[in-house]
Specification:
InterPro entries: WH-like_DNA-bd_sf (IPR036388). The chain contains five helices and two strands; from the N terminus they run H-H-H-E-H-H-E. By secondary structure, it is mainly alpha-helical. Strands 1-2 form a two-stranded parallel sheet.
């Protein structure tokens, strides 16, 4: 895995920790306290792909990672939620 990808993943983990501490202190619901931002196990690989392409479609993600459409769309949503993937196209 590329060093820049490792740095980004580390920073995302730090952000996740901060968000959990904020949610834990203010949320009345126990569900909010236990909320965790879930990432697909192939999130890092998708992040590496984003580094290579200006735009990435779910079709590209499917072909490179050998996954189905639903999982590819989920990974793209996770990238967008993390603020890392705004230039992609979901296949309809």
């Amino acid at each position: 895995m590329d060093d820049s990808v490792k740095v980004i993943l580390k920073k995302l983990d730090d952000i996740d920790s901060r968000l959990k501490s904020i949610e834990g202190g203010k949320g009345p619901s126990s569900e909010a306290k236990e909320a965790k931002i879930e990432r697909d196990s192939l999130f890092g690989k998708a992040l590496e792909m984003m580094d290579k392409f200006d735009e990435m479609s779910s079709r590209q993600l499917q072909e490179v990672l050998k996954i189905d459409t639903k999982r590819a769309d989920s990974i793209l949503d996770q990238l967008e939620t993390a603020g890392l993937g705004t230039c992609y196209m979901k296949e309809v």
